[in-house]
Design goal:
2 copies of one chain form a homodimer.
Chain A (H helix, E strand, L loop, with lengths): L1 E7 L29 H9 L8 E6 L3 H7 L8 E4 L5 H15 L3 E7 L3 E2 L2 H16 L4 E6 L10 E5 L5 E7 L4 H10 L2 E11 H11 L1 H10 L8 H8 L8 H6 L5 E3 L1 E2 L3 E2 L4 H7 L8 E2 L4 E5 L5 E3 L5 E5 L4 E6 L2 E6 L6 H4 L2
Parallel strand pairs in A: 1-2, 1-4, 2-3, 6-10, 6-11, 13-15, 14-16, 15-17
Antiparallel strand pairs in A: 4-9, 5-12, 6-9, 7-8, 7-9, 8-10, 17-18
Chain lengths: 345, 345
């Protein structure tokens, strides 16, 4: 079988406002200040496993030009455009039906474009393990992250058994602090990272079985994939798909779901706090963007991300976010970052 | 006698960095966000006492265009350019020698361009009183501000006697907190605001007597004032003047110095704290500039002055300065504003 990678890059995530905006969401930003955007880092990570010709990016029309600009090596026909946002099940179905039309022996990894992986070598090791497993089985694999804290912000996978590949007993919603503490202590719960591995027959069959409405739309589209009519037909039919996540549509219904308990330094970078945690910091714990010049005096634990400003001097700030993009400045305590969604209005 | 006003506008004050810069110092800024710059407010204040044709602005070559732009009614020949910064004594001598050459009956007020006066009516009342007094005497008047607190940041005037015009016994340097407390309690000490009133014969004679080096340079220049050669001769000779303040050169030496104890809502706006105190504030004590849009959440006692930024959202800041100019942003506690001079470097 041949490896393929599907990268889901349609999100408009607003938690990093004003650094991220609907015009240029998080996956297209160099949020770590390392010189590569999250989608670039995501593609880079897979290249030793899969040539760029077999990397597929699903995004919305609004982001096509950004994807082409940030991934110049990617064949333009590998960019799939969702005419409307329909959550992950239709997104994954679209990519997998299209891949199957030209590559019936595909073995597929699906990954979000905007997550962080610190240990790419370990990442590829466990992904390879999963690919080997799905190459000759009808297993659905969802990568599981070994929890490092009793996090309440993630969904959990309840895994059973021993070894590197374990059967998934159940999925659990984001828990209360008490439940998260119990999950953390019991040891067989893993974070659900939304990274999936399966072969192309497995996933299309599973969608056909558990989400027949989506499968039937994809079957109607299938004759047009890789033809001149693909775009127009997709634009007309895709929005008819029900809006549902792959977790609800398939994962929670199938009994042949497996996980690989992993530890590759993963973060979904879903909060400014996690961005700070994963960024390079000075001796006072300030995560400063490399450019422009940022000088700090008596500051601790701050995250600074600016774009238009040329020079920044901060004094006496402890645990603050200082973010600027295109002339919009936000200064906010990290402890209050959940309020940011209100600031945008 | 006819009233004249000399406005000293050559300062490069750096305490409001980055709002003020050497390219556009404080006197040329709308620091209060009221739509008028400090030099415009200063000129406005005098117009009921003195027509614009008898207002003289002394500044440096670098600021000539800003003065012309901000004071379009001012006759261009009333802008005097100091080719070098030589403190207030040569500045005042230049203006007064030039005025005397064309207006031997001038009665003169000298004022800095960058101070604030909240009660312009009361200001004009006491200035008129001083002008009446100097019109037919050889008195040197320095306006005295009745202290509202034991301020250690100003020089003091020790006045004797009663009534609206009092003899000055002595000048006092910026005091220690203890001395400032005593000055405040004793009641006969006034803040030295650097606003002077005298007739043209009095000041030129006093400079001739107490600062003969400066007077002799001015005498050499005098034949060229109001001629085509004025600029070139000034450029050559003015820098030869010793660098000395009018206080040291004249005021502290003369025995005929008087003051008018005044209460016209004066501030030299020498600190961000004084700027905050004199600005319009929201119900939480935040002094926000009118434009661009500044939104505050759980903020108290902040001063915000931005220029390039289009939108500002602040959360959880108490007693901070947030200032931005041309892409340079500073966030600093008001209590630490004395450190700002180090931030510029």
């Amino acid at each position: 079988m041949e490896n393929h990678v599907v990268i889901m890059a349609g999100g408009i995530g607003s938690r990093f406002w004003p650094m991220s905006t609907p015009e240029r969401p998080k996956q297209f930003l160099d949020v770590l200040g390392c010189g590569r955007t999250l989608i670039q880092m995501t593609v880079d990570r897979f290249l030793p496993l899969c040539p760029i010709e077999r990397v597929w990016v699903v995004t919305s029309e609004a982001y096509r030009d950004i994807v082409r600009e940030q991934l110049p090596q990617l064949p333009p026909e590998n960019i799939l455009l969702e005419p409307a946002s329909r959550n992950t099940a239709p997104c994954i179905a679209l990519a997998c039906w299209k891949i199957r039309a030209a590559h019936p022996a595909a073995n597929v990894v699906v990954s979000p474009a905007d997550a962080l992986v610190l240990d790419s070598g370990e990442y590829r090791r466990v992904i390879s393990l999963a690919l080997d497993f799905t190459a000759d089985s009808d297993a659905i694999v969802t990568m599981g992250i070994k929890p490092s804290r009793p996090e309440t912000g993630y969904g959990y996978i309840d895994a059973e058994g021993e070894g590197e590949i374990r059967h998934v007993r159940a999925f659990r919603e984001k828990p209360s602090p008490e439940t998260a503490g119990r999950y953390f202590r019991e040891g067989h719960y893993l974070w659900n990272a939304g990274i999936f591995v399966w072969n192309i027959d497995t996933i299309t069959s599973a969608i056909r079985q558990y989400a027949p409405q989506i499968a039937s739309i994809m079957d109607t589209l299938a004759p047009y994939f890789h033809t001149a009519q693909e775009a127009e037909r997709t634009r007309r039919l895709f929005p008819l798909c029900e809006k549902i996540s792959i977790d609800y549509a398939v994962m929670e219904k199938s009994s042949s779901v497996y996980t690989v308990p992993s530890d590759f330094g993963w973060s979904d970078l879903g909060t400014w706090g996690s961005l700070r945690a994963n960024s390079e910091k000075d001796t006072d714990g300030n995560a400063l963007s490399g450019s422009p010049e940022v000088k700090v005096y008596d500051c601790e634990g701050c995250v600074v991300r600016v774009s238009t400003l040329k020079k920044v001097v901060l004094e006496g700030l402890k645990d603050y976010i200082v973010a600027e993009k295109d002339g919009t400045l936000m200064v906010c305590r990290l402890s209050e970052e959940q309020r940011i969604k209100d600031f945008e209005k």
